[in-house]
Amino acid sequence: MDEQVKREVASYPLRRDIQGSIRLYFQHWMWRRQLGYLLHPKVPMKSDFKVADIACGTGIWLLDLAKEHPHVKCDGYDISTEQFPASGWLPSNVNLKTLNVLEPIPEDLQGRYDVVHVGLVVVVVENDNPTPILQNLLALLSEAEPGGYLQWDEADFGNIVTSAAGPSSSYPAMDSLKQKVHEFFYEINGNRYDWVRELASYFKESGVTMIDNKFVPIDDDMAHPWTLMHLMATLEFIKGLDRPPGSATDWWKVYEAAAEEAYHGGSMRMAMISCVGRKAGEDFKG
User: Fold this and answer.
1) What DSSP character marks residue 113?
2) Which residues contact 35 (CB under 8 A, 6 or more apart)?
3) Which among 80, 186, 221, 255 has most CB atoms closer than 10 A?
4) Residue 20 near residue 240 (C-beta atoms within 8 A)
5) What are the tens digits of pLDDT across the range 101-127?
């Protein structure tokens, strides 16, 4: 397999095609069901608030928020416009634009927002260090009291858990697939993704007042759809590696065996982490 292809895939392993967009919608609704909220209930929403969703993908998180808060200005940002709905389908209070969160925030966006949300950027965090992205997110937030609010929802990518519905089910291919994925990213960029479970510590080190830090394992009743979601993402990843066609034969074999295990009770899950904090102000009393 070509080393350049591997590095390209490691920098962004998913795809922005129709199947990738379907996965993002599916993923969003499952995350909301499991987490129990869209925006943390202790984040106060006012009619004059401005909200930004970073790495917004299809914009679905922001569209749901705009429906709940039709008077709030909602801006979604992503490095690519490929998965944005046509602007004619968007509510009047939603705008989708381009922004690379890995680069310094443009001056005209600094301090603009009362609430910033980001989710599922684990695979684009460089050098196992979320601090550069975190600092850029904080730059978007208002300095005015009581300070802007940040919610970062992330997947515990470094700790994929495999299991089975019962003693008659086995999942060796899922274990192999998990191992191959982790070895791939470690070989290319050295990432282990341990920072995800320590995200609250990075918030505190950056001067953020913590509101909540949730670690949410995936319930058994969501095991099957969650596994399908992971397999959809893996399919996108392998398609990226399979250049030219036939380059990823070993990956396809393990993937197909893992997909078969999914329909016989095998499960792949990674827990959710949701960190919520405030940029400035006195200790939170909400």
Assistant:
1) B
2) 153, 214, 216, 272, 274
3) 255
4) no
5) 999 999 999 999 999 999 999 999 999
